[in-house]
């Protein structure tokens, strides 16, 4: 049995930055450091930081007044900053710069009189934060079915933005339906799409074209981009499974499989991927070959407060 290992895979620049922010804050300021929501959607990252002294909370009211809190990579609504100011909570913002860019686009559009359509998953932390920027001027559309029946102000200027962790193919159908219904709709800039999301989906497609019989995507159940990688593999005719670690691999999946594709969602640490590879070797994998489809060199700067320290 052979393993095809996707490259790129795992941590993107935004996730790497967010995890480093919590780690460095613990070293600079000492524990406890509070983190609003999961810093990224991965159980291994969260448990590792919790072991170092990070305290994860759902809302800021759980943070003691005057304490230090870090905002997750997915971004938050302005109301969260206002709450922090009222309670004298010191904030470090770990929002991915690509998400911040979308927030700024929403502000500019609303200021110019636009109604904004956000293509994304309701309930996802990123979507909640983006809608919070202008809740009275935004409509969330999740899929093509909603796009066909959503009620929008026909007379107003309309603009679309997208959840960054959706790939080009994820949004193409929705955008096509919306454009057919609303001819004056302005489409989002192409660079709204997260490069890492698209690269990881492209790598899965490349592996399916090379004839893998099984796709293992390493990522936590609440990672939407990891779950989407499984869907991409299944759409390519491959058996696919989302696993949070090596212990979840079932030997029955490997029956009759000559080539296994392995990749990881954008919030999955590389160490977890290596544990999966070791488990596959125990189960009969003889070689591991990289499937390279792109090179990534994006790096996002740390917040000034940590950079100065």
Number of E-type strands:
12
Determine the N-to-C terminus distance: 49 Å
Number of helices: 11
| SSE-based structural type | alpha/beta
What string, H for helix and E for strand, traces the elements in order? EHEHEEHEHEHEHEHHEHEEHEH
Could you characterize what this model shows?
By secondary structure, the protein is of the alpha/beta class. It has three domains: 2-11 and 195-292, 4-hydroxy-3-methylbut-2-enyl diphosphate reductase, catalytic domain (Cobalt-precorrin-4 Transmethylase, domain 1), CATH 3.40.1010; 13-96, 3-Layer(aba) Sandwich (Rossmann fold); 98-190, Cobalt-precorrin-4 Transmethylase, domain 1. Helices cover 40% and strands 19% of the residues. The chain is built from eleven helices and twelve strands. Strand 4, helix 3 and strand 5 (90-93) form a beta-alpha-beta unit. The chain is flat and about 60 Å long. The model has no long low-confidence stretch (mean pLDDT 95).
């Amino acid at each position: 049995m052979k393993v095809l290992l996707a490259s790129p895979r795992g941590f993107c620049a935004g996730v790497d930055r967010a995890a480093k922010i919590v780690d460095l804050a613990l070293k600079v300021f000492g524990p406890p450091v509070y983190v609003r929501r999961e810093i990224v959607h991965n159980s291994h990252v969260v448990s590792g930081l919790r072991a170092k002294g990070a305290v994860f909370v759902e809302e800021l009211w759980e943070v003691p007044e005057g304490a230090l809190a870090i905002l997750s990579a997915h971004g938050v609504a302005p109301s969260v900053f206002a709450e922090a100011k009222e309670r004298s909570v010191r904030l470090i913002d770990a929002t991915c710069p690509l998400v911040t860019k979308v927030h700024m686009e929403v502000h500019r559009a609303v200021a110019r009189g636009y109604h904004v359509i956000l293509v994304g998953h309701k309930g996802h932390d990123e979507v909640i934060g983006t809608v919070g920027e202008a809740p009275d001027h935004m409509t969330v559309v999740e899929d093509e079915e909603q796009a066909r029946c959503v009620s929008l102000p026909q007379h107003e200027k309309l603009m679309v933005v997208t959840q960054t962790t959706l790939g080009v193919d994820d949004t193409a159908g929705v955008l096509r339906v919306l454009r057919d219904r609303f001819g004056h709709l302005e489409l989002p800039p192409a660079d709204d799409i997260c490069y890492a999301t698209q690269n990881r989906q492209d790598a899965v497609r490349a592996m399916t074209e090379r004839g893998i019989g099984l796709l293992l995507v390493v990522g936590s159940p609440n990672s939407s981009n990891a779950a989407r990688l499984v869907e991409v593999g299944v759409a390519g005719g491959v058996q696919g499974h989302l696993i949070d670690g090596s212990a979840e691999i079932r030997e029955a999946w490997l029956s009759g499989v000559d080539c296994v594709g392995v990749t990881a969602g954008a919030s999955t640490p590389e160490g977890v991927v290596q544990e999966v590879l070791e488990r596959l070797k125990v189960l009969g994998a003889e070689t591991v070959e990289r499937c390279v489809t792109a090179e990534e060199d994006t790096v996002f700067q740390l917040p000034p407060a940590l950079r100065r320290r």
